[in-house]
Amino acid sequence: MNDTTSHVSQSVDKIPVTVLTGYLGAGKTTLLNRILTQDHGRKYAVIVNEFGEIGIDNDLIVDSDEEIYEMNNGCVCCTVRGDLIRVLQGLMKRKGRFDAIVIETTGLADPAPVAQTFFMDEDVQAKTRLDAVVTLVDAKHVVARLKDSPEAEDQIAFADVILLNKIDLVDDDEKSALHSVLNHINPHAIIHETSKAEISLEKILGRGAFDLGRILEDDPYFLTNVHDHHHHHDHQCGPDCSHESHAHHDQTGTHGNLNTIIHDPTIGTVSLRAGELDPNRFLPWIEKITQIDGPNILRLKGIVAFKDDPDRFVVQGIHMILEGDHQRAWRTDEERSSRLVFIGRDLDREKLERTFAACAI
Amino acid sequence: MTMPTIANLDTGTFTEWAGFLDGIPVFADAQGFIRVIEKNERRFDIHNGILCAKPAFDGKSLLSGGEDGKICRTSADGSSEILYQTATRWMDKIATGPDGAVACGSGRKGAIILSSGEVREIEVERSIEGLAFAPKGMRLAIARYDGVELLWVNTKNPNQFLEWKGAHTGVMFSPDGKYVVSLMQENALHGWRLGDNKHMRMSGYPAKVASTSWSYKGRWLATSGAPAAILWPFAGKDGPMGKTPKELGGMGKTMVTRVCCHPSADMLAIGYENGMIMAVRIDDGKIVSLRRDGQGAISTLNWDRSGARLAFGSEDGEAGIIEIS
């Protein structure tokens, strides 16, 4: 984003926070130690919830008991992590001893309260910013996990970046099936195949995945979609995938047995497209949708072209939390179109499509 | 009141506590140092990182909890002892009570340390977010998710649980011991009248309440959390129930970050997010400026026993003593 007219405030002075999720044994600690020991000149503070089980090599490690707090606003999905609020407040009192924070969650952790903490607590929000949710997936065991654990699925659905780890332990057919599963649950995450969590750190750190200024910039779905939607080799779509070209896309092959692989096949994506929208219809609509369907919406992101507005309007959300702002001027070489994606459970595609279409000019 | 004079000091980091021990100015910072200011400044290395600090009830020592898992008692002469220690866990909650009692908390575990040296370990279902001794020291209030536990300090009688949905992030007793008031995650206070467990909602804040102080004789509870100090009336038998609070010291949109009531007059000191400090008379709201703005938000404010000097500290290290008389 080089655009100097950007309206979205740059959060340069806020400390970036990366959240590592993934089922037990997926390789979180291995990845964490890679982050900490690589010669990058940056210092990290690490927050863990399962201290002492496996060695982490860092000066500043804080252990905390996972505490999920529901907010007293009648919304069951408005949850924050009380332990993180406390620890982050303590850490931020002594600025200067670290450049970034990594939170390693437990294998069963729900990423939503962790992410929501960065939007719902004013003190945390003032001093830190959520950079990305990075989910490690054990290529060998994820299929079994998805059958018995909705947490594993949530962690994938919530991810900005997925490391398909231990890839050396599966063959090409399994690999291709795994990509289908991951793309079905979350076609918007960037997937990297790794073994022993080996990856160059710029692919997982400094992503700005929750930065409105960069929204959907690295989104693999939109990248392929915008450029006339051609499938690259590791992008295969699930049965609910909404790629427009699916009308003529082969629905058999690796798609066949997805419902038996996934524990809760209700999780999915709805992608919406339109031309210019009427802000007086769109803004109340998105408010209402997130109020009503918030508990089922895990993530939402979008870029909107409002009629007679020279600037792009960007939105993102987690459950009922919604954030939107003008981002930058539309470039002359850009098509003024509106795109919105929802990842969630039991999303009513027909209703979303119909009510969204009603916001168009 | 004549013009105040300020003696400045730089702690170089977040000032956790600034106040007086035995009349001597003392400053504790997030780095872990405690500074004692007499003719010269003396600096004592007490913790690897201080997370919380409170003066003892008798005002002769400072109790502090650290990133090193220790609870220390430090006197104005710089002597310090470790009262309690846990391995590797952040000790971030502390309270002091009569007869030298100290309570501390770290996650779901904590301890009560009596002056006899006796240690009683405590464990609660949810993380300890706040601790406070009752004025007579018989009971300890523990703020946690969904309410406040009242524990008997000297007996094994079961805890009383004051339930109210939501996250309670701090707690205090009124000076007469009749009320328990908690700070909540959602920009409100919640109170219970202990006689009949009647609830009190104190809401309407634009921000979380981080600082509270009882006025002289407990007539008012002053709080931060707004662009003015908010004072709830506690003089009547129903406390603040059904009453609107007083707003004092409003300075445009500048948020109040600290409040500290004067020890012997109906007056309070107010610290703001821009480093400004004001003294405000409660009766008529008359304001006297004590400090112009500075680098960082005021993080601590404490009067000496006579109310003639006010110690302050800020988030970025600016600190000092203001002489008022």
Explained architecture:
The complex is a heterodimer of chains A (361) and B (325). Chain A is an alpha/beta fold and 361 residues long. Chain A has two domains: 15-214, Rossmann fold (3-Layer(aba) Sandwich), CATH 3.40.50.300; 266-361, Hypothetical Protein Yjia, Chain: A,domain 2. Chain A has eleven helices and 14 strands. Chain A has helices at residues 28-37, 82-93, 111-120, 122-127, 142-148, 150-158, 172-185, 220-226, 258-261, 279-293, 349-357, and strands at 15-22, 44-48, 61-63, 68-70, 79-81, 100-104, 128-138, 161-165, 190-193, 267-274, 297-305, 311-318, 321-329, 338-345. In chain A, helix 5 (142-148) packs across helix 6 (150-158). The radius of gyration of chain A is 20 Å and the shape is globular. Chain B is mainly beta. Chain B has a domain at 209-325: Methylamine Dehydrogenase, Chain H, CATH 2.130.10. In chain B, 0% of the residues lie in helices and 54% in strands. Chain B has a six-stranded antiparallel β-sheet with strand order 14-15-16-17-18-19, with no helix packed on it. In chain B, strands 1-30-29-28 form a four-stranded antiparallel β-sheet, with no helix packed on it. A four-stranded antiparallel β-sheet of chain B has the order 2-3-4-5, with no helix packed on it. In chain B, a hairpin with a 5-residue loop joins strand 21 and strand 22. The interface between A and B is medium-sized, with 24 and 29 residues.
